[in-house]
Amino acid sequence: MIDMDVVTLSRLQFAATAMYHFLFVPLTLGLSFLMAIMESVYVMTGREIWRRMTLFWGTCFGINFAMGVATGVVMEFQFGMNWSYYSHYVGDIFGAPLALEGLMAFFLEASFIGLFFFGWDRMSKVGHLVVTWLVAFGANFSALWILIANGWMQHPVGAVFNPDTMRMEVTDFMAVIFNPVAQAKFVHTVSAGYVTGAMFVMAVSSWYLLRGRHQEFAKRSMAVAASFGLAAALSVVVLGDESGYVTTENQKMKIAGMEAMWHTEPAPAAINVIAFPNMEKQENSFAISIPYLLGIIGTRSLTTELPGIVNLVDSAHGKIRDGITAYSALQKIRANPADAEARAVFDEKWPNLGYGLLVKQIRTDIENATPEDIAKAANSTIPNVPVLFWSFRVMVGLGLYFIAFFAAAFWLASRHQLGEKRWTLWVALFSLPLPWVAIESGWLLAEYGRQPWAIEGVLPTFYAASGLTLWDLVISLAIFLILYSVLAVIEVFLMLKAIKKGPLDHNPFETAPAGADVLPKPATAAPKL
Amino acid sequence: MHDIVPIDYETLRLIWWLLLGVLLIGFAVMDGFDLGIGALLPFVAKTDEERRIVINVVGPVWEGNQVWLILGGGAIFAAFPLLYAVSFSGLYLAMMVILIALIVRPVGFKYRSKIGDPGWRSKWDMVLCFAGVVPSLILGVAVGNVLLGLPFEFDDTLRTFYRGNFFQLLTPFALVAGLVSLSMLIMHGAALLTWKTSGPIADRARTYGRWAALAAIVLFALAGVWVAYGIGGHVLTSVIDPNGPSNPLGKTATVTTGAWLSNYKTYPWMMAAPILGFAGAVLALVGFTVRKPALTFITSGVAIFGIISTAGVSLFPFLLPSSISPNAGLTLWDASSSKLTLWVMLLSTAFFLPIILLYTAFVYRVMRGKVTSDSMGKNPNAY
């Protein structure tokens, strides 16, 4: 029998280390492009201030990047360490995007990051600019591959179960790579990173303006961040809607959970703006809803029904019974690999094998499951509705706020009125943590909302864990807790110190004669920001 | 669907076994000197200025080098999922210790010189030294334990059960293997320092490098004798179909003392691996003594190639033998991914690896030359 305490702690550890890692990733994604844009302006116009901007935001980028690298290695190893049955069961599909992430993205990003910092005085202007862009692309490619991997967990396509090797095996790589869930999630996630980078630049620059320091530097940085942020904020919401739409196709339970929709309603369904879902009674204690809206957003039609939670649980009963049949056939195949009859049964029923495995948390001999066991297993397919409901609303609310925020910033920037009203600067400064809140809510929704599945419909989370001891988990959790807390303090301390110190007020490389930085090069006809 | 793969399963598995070797050797050669230099930091550099020079030798390149380890992990996951599942979960706490080092190392490089306070800097120097010594040692101890076999077994759903704990990994043989690894990586780090620095740092590196090379030679020989007379090697006792499905429960195996050397009788060309290991280390020792830094660095790389290959070919066709259930040991024939995955990953690797090598070479070319106080002075980004 699987030790459920070990499973719980393994989940806690994975969630904590992943969420911690993702504090640093979005800033890397966003700042890398902002740096590349700023350096492009420097190369096109020759104005020294744009290089100083690149250098200063590069310093912040570096402090953040080190933590991203440090916490990222952990993620790569934890699948094998804590989720060894998962690694065996789906490694044939899931391992490939991780390896490709290394081949295509990490090497690119990590090889050129050294030149970004150390190559300023060893390379031509254009050469260094190319390096900066390669770093930005490397960072974003890595997001692409990890989201292909994650997209497969949400919507496992292009693979079948092989009874001879006791695992899922890939049949169609193109389906895995062009998984619509993965593509929508990729753009949604990197756009969220761009919003974070833009907000970081806005907030820090606002602080300089509030203090009356580095005015030129801050206003230019804000102008870039405002336009970049506006585009990103629009993209994050549009693609978020796209991934919401895709979710309704593939993860009906997740959307029913995040909308707290317990029962199927006649199409088009109403949307609950506010609700207090009650998990035990399987109803909402209180709700304010708008008629028709959910059905229209979720299905983009007036006639398609969205199934409610209770109805989905009902349909899980049949899937669980099919899964048990598949499991029994699998045991016959293991006893006698030549059993053609069992193979025929298995070929028909295997897609629901995962539902059969849900019963394993109740009893090991799942072939003897009683109707009560099956009902219990079916009930376990309900995710934590209140958490989903509210994390979704936090994310969407903040997403809409970011559009308004960056639209206003863009408007002020285009009228050269940035910083004229001090209260706008305070708003920008205090908006700094909001992208992180939105992003972590989004991940909570995506991953906690997928429970009880590690791979939707294929592999229950509890079944995927390693057979570690409780002590293993206590020790590793304690190590992460201590190490990550200490490093968080140091990181914030160094970041604040770098920000207080501010951008350089001189040219460190002395490549151009003094005073050259104020004169634009006459030969360049590039547009000026 | 699998018909689209133009190579047979056996060849693909063999290629991936070789590629796994390439990636692990790539890690040891490239990131190995970063680890070795970290381990040597407090010893070869006394003043803050000297320490900054040593750190800036690896400063521009360590991030790229570390990706060899990440890619190694990813490639094991993709090509040999069971190997990844069994070893990473079985060696759980050992992996945690390595992770501590890998978490503090990037931060150490980046944060150490952000603040001038000597107490702050010397603490980070200790951290960097720890982060160099510990992975070098533990990865070697892990390889030693692979040769001894890990105490794991499967149930019939291929779920892993590991019947050991962290302290049981620290056997005398495994510790010797750990010291082989540590001494060879220190040798390698010292070799790079003699190349990229000058004056007292290079002099000290030369001294430590000589001792490390000598230690690597002696310990590698000791481990060899131990493998021949002291520990059991695994031998297949049933025919295994190299084109069969990946299920390690379909074969039988037995344990015989000295059996890890039987491959050298069957395939005499495999002797090239230990010969290169010894020859490389001896030439590195000579290189340190006659002050030929480039030669020293290249030959110490050859030594690493030879020593790691020796472990790999001795185990062939095993990847990870089981000490408590020899039949469950993982071989390259019964623990790999599906044919299609191996094929797609081979295509990707064949495409990307040459590009990676090209731009890595470009980065090193841009950063060529010795690191001195002057070369660091101008760059506000220097560590």
State the distance separating the first and last CA atoms of chain B: 52 Å
Structural class of chain A: mainly alpha
Cα-atom radius of gyration of chain B: 21 Å
Number of domains of chain B: 1
* Overall number of structural domains of chain A: 2
Name the strands of the widest sheet of chain B in spatial order: 1-2
- Helix share of residues of chain B? 55-70%
The biggest sheet of chain B amounts to: 2 strands, antiparallel
Question: In terms of structural class, how would the helical and strand content of chain B be classed?
Answer: mainly alpha
Globally, the shape of chain A reads globular
C-alpha Rg of chain A, in Å?
A: 26 Å
Rough outline of chain B = globular
Residue share in β-strands of chain B: 5-15%
Work out the helix count of chain B: 13
Order of helices and strands of chain B: HHHHHHEEHHEEHHHEEHH
Overall description:
The complex is a heterodimer of chains A (529) and B (383). Chain A has 529 residues and is mostly helical. Helices cover 70% and strands 5% of the residues of chain A. Chain A contains 18 helices and 6 strands. In chain A, the strands form 3 sheets. A two-stranded antiparallel ribbon of chain A has the order 1-2. Chain A has a two-stranded antiparallel sheet with strand order 3-4. In chain A, strands 5-6 form a two-stranded antiparallel ribbon. In chain A, helix 2 runs antiparallel to helix 3 (84-118) and helix 10 (309-335) runs antiparallel to helix 11. The termini of chain A are far apart. Mean pLDDT of chain A is 90; it is low at 512-529. Chain B has 383 residues and is mainly alpha-helical. Chain B has one domain (15-377). Chain B has helices at 9-44, 48-58, 62-79, 81-90, 92-111, 118-148, 172-196, 199-229, 262-266, 272-290, 293-315, 339-366, 373-377; strands spanning 152-154, 160-162, 232-236, 253-257, 318-320, 330-331. In chain B, the strands form 3 sheets. A two-stranded antiparallel sheet of chain B has the order 1-2. In chain B, helix 1 crosses helix 11, helix 7 runs antiparallel to helix 11 and helix 8 packs antiparallel against helix 10. The longest helix of chain B is centred in the N-terminal third of the chain and has 36 residues, at 9-44. The termini of chain B are far apart. At the A-B interface, helix 2, helix 3, strand 2 and helix 18 of A face helix 3, helix 4, helix 5, strand 2 and helix 12 of B. Chain B: This is Cytochrome d ubiquinol oxidase subunit II. Chain B: The chain crosses the membrane at residues 15-45, 66-84, 90-107, 127-150, 170-195, 207-229, 269-290, 297-320, 340-364. Chain B: Pfam families: Cyt_bd_oxida_II. Chain B: It is a multi-pass membrane protein.
